[in-house]
Amino acid sequence: MSSLGQSQASDRPTALSGRLLARARAHSDQILVLILLFAIWQALSFWLTVYWVGSPWGVVTRLYDGVVNGAILMHAGFTMSEAIIGFIIGAIPAVALPFLLRRLPIATAILDPFMVGGYGAPKLALAPLFILWFGIGIESKIALVAITVFFIVYFSALAGVRALDSKLVQMAQVAGANERDVARHIVFPGAVPYIFTGFRIAMPYSIGGAVVAEIISANRGLGYLIQLSAMNFDTTGVFVALVAVTIIVFVMNGVVDFAERRLLHWRPASDAKMQSSQ
Amino acid sequence: MSTQTLLEVRDLSKRFASRESRDAALWVIKDLSFSVPDGEFLTIIGPSGSGKTTLLNMIAQIDTATGGEVRFKSEPPAPISDPKLLNPGLSCRIGYVTQEDNLLPWRTTLQNVLFPLTVQGRLNDETRARAQTLIRTVGLAGFENHYPHELSGGMRKRASLIRTLVYDPPVILMDEPFGALDAQTRAVLQEDLLRLWELGRKTIVFVTHDIAEAIALGDRTLVLSRAPAKVIGEHRISIPRPRDIRGIMSHPDFSALYQRIRAQVQ
I need a labelling partner for B81 at 20 to 30 A (CA). Which of A51, A109, B87, B106 fits? Predict the structure, then answer.
């Protein structure tokens, strides 16, 4: 009996090293693909000239210079703060609302078509409206990011609350749990994986929303840099800003991954993998 | 053993709402009555689909009854036909070990075992020590910090069993707790259960569809009919304790009891 459990426990280090090996192999293949893409890009820049497609080397040197003299960091910092603040403002009510509505099925049903409408509406089309309302400063970008994030996370959190296992609730009630205990110990932990799926989907949208709002109207940020470079026919400049956006998305994805692993270490590895591959 | 009645079920009935008209066949349980004296290990046996789980759900008050009453000690019968007035676990005095282990996947073995104490606000050095003792007794020592998915089926079952024992409810309901296990693990767990029971002599209502299990564990066995379920047989199991679970079949009384019960279980 106990030997069975021990063998399960001792399987872990080998499983872990196997995973690391697989990951290392995947990484080397990924680097190969990256080099190939750069090679194609470089070839295109010779063929179509740097004027139209820029060049990878030019982008790397310009990016380096931009980081060293702080210009890129300033714009990136601006875009990131819009994305992060907007994300927080959008995500908090999106997570809280399904929990508040859990005991109010009628209110949930009334709200549902409006939420579906809000989810389906193209949020980027709201950008001009927000600029009209909140000006060309940081507020209009935050508003756009917040509304984009809100609907994505709301539906994920709602799915998490709805996936509640009523048998676990009954078990808890028999053991003496009150309504608050059930919400805290059962509903919330059960919904966390769903909420993180929402975060994972919403995160690139938050950066994208900030960048697009900047393209429409701004005087700072990576979106502004894209717009400015394009107006000056500076193709390399556009690519520099795009690469910077991509790097930010990667880093933020890593942050979400890290937080998810810390919070969801109770899940079987296969589950976690399925979730993260979505 | 005192003879004071701890739990009394009287004319308990359950009908599931029908899509069509009031169909008589939808009565799962009809006028079912029995009582359990303090400290008795009662086993209930019935064919599958005879409403055994429904019966325990009604006693545990996680499901409503259509009619009849359940009394705890000499208290007035609980209002169990109104879903709003249900009191699951009747104020932590009726424990329930369900068919599935229902461990919380985000809690470790120890945290799962401590869960009832946590929500009852009874977590202290004494109750923690009790939990540790139970964990050692059922062989889960060393697995306190494992999550449920890292445990085998038998270990999960043990964890769910001691999660109920840890807060010491006077009555414990068990719904085929060992049903899904292999024969070997099952025998080990039956031995564990009897050992734990003999330490505390709780009142246990243990539902099963396995006649040998009903005989091996119980002081008394009730036989339920097919739905609508009612008690159609009562057998006192006089095999002395402590019992040898693995050798129970070779006890001279076993065979006759088995045949008598077998004849009643349809």
Answer: A109
Q: Within this chain, do residues A86 and A11 fall inside the same structural domain, yes or no?
A: no
pLDDT tens digits for chain A (278 residues)?
344 444 444 455 566 677 777 777 778 888 899 899 989 988 888 888 888 888 888 889 999 998 899 889 999 999 999 999 999 999 999 999 999 998 888 998 999 999 999 998 888 888 888 989 998 889 999 999 999 999 999 999 999 999 989 999 999 999 988 989 999 999 999 999 999 999 999 999 999 999 999 998 888 999 999 999 999 999 999 999 999 999 999 999 999 989 888 888 888 765 554 444 43
Which ipTM score applies to this complex? 0.87
CATH assignment at residue B52: 3.40.50.300
This prediction's pTM: 0.81
Chain B residues within an 8 Å CB radius of A6 = 142
Tell me the chain A residues in contact with residue B166 when contact means C-beta distances shorter than 8 Å.
Answer: none
3-state helix, strand, coil in chain B (%, to 5): 35, 25, 40
User: What is the DSSP track for A134-151?
Assistant: H-SSHHHHHHHHHHHHHH
DSSP codes of every residue in A11-27: HHHHHHHHHHHHHHHHH
**Domain span including residue A33:** 1-48
Give CA–CA dist B2/A103, Å, rounded. 45
> Using the beta-carbon criterion (under 8 Å), do B94 and A174 form an inter-chain contact?
yes
Same domain, A20 and A107: no
CA–CA dist B223, B265 (Å, integer): 7
For chain B, the domain total comes to 1
| Subunit contact B119:A266, Cβ cutoff 8 A | no
Say whether residue A267 is in contact with chain B using an 8 A CB cutoff: yes
- Touching check for A167 and chain B: CB below 8 Å? yes
